[in-house]
Amino acid sequence: MPETLTFMMGEFAAEFPTDRQYAVNHMWAQEQPDGNLRFGFSAYAVRLLQDVYFLDWSIDAPVLLTAGQEIGSIESKKAESSLYSPVRGQLLRFNDALMEDPSAINTDKHDSGWLFETDSQEQDEAQQLLSAESYLELLVTVWEKTQRTIKGQLNE
After folding, report:
1. What is the DSSP secondary structure assignment for residue 130, as one 8-state letter?
2. For 56, left (φ over 0), alpha (ψ -120 to 50), or beta?
3. pLDDT tens for residues 34-51?
4. pTM score > 0.70 for this model?
C-alpha cells in the first residue's frame, strides 16, 4: 500500500497516495507498468462532487488530446461540469465500466474508479503534473476560496 498524505477539508480527511502525480484540475495520474498514464479524480474532487451519478465522454479513443481540451462531462449530487484533459497525449481508452456504473468514482477513486489512460510520456507534460506534496500546497491556497463557494451555494 502506498504512502499517503492527508489534507483536511473541514472534518473530512482527503488522502493522496504519493505513488502518483496530480494535476491542477484535481485529477491524479499514475504511471502504469506499460508506461501509459492512468487518470482519475483526486479525493479532493470526489469530496466536492459527492455522489457521482452520470459520466459522459464527448470524444472517442484513440485521439490526440491537447492539455485543457474538453473531453466529457460529469454530474453529481453537488455539481455538473465539463471534464478537461490535464495533459497532451494520445488518449488510449476510457474506463468503460464507469459508463454503466460511475459509482466506483465515489467508492474506489484510486483503483477501479479511474477515468482514462493516455500515452503521455513527454517530459514537458510530465513537469506540469505535481507531486503529492506540491498538490497539497496548491490545495492550501485554494481551500479558503472553495469554502466560500460552498457556503455561498448553501445560502442560495
Report:
1. B
2. beta
3. 999 999 999 999 999 989
4. yes
Return d(Cα 131, Cα 2) in angstroms, integer.
14
Convert the pLDDT of each residue in 120-145 to its tens digit: 656 455 568 999 999 999 999 998 88
Please name each of the domains of the chain with its CATH number.
Answer: 4-154 (2.40.50.100)
Which amino acid is it at 55? Answer: L
Beta bridge partners of 52: 76
Nearest to 67 by CA among 42, 85, 93: 85
- Is residue 39 within 8 A of residue 109, CB to CB? The reply is no
Radius of gyration, alpha carbons of the chain: 15
Give the number of other CB atoms < 10 A from CB of residue 22.
24
Checking if the pLDDT of 15 tops 50, the result is yes
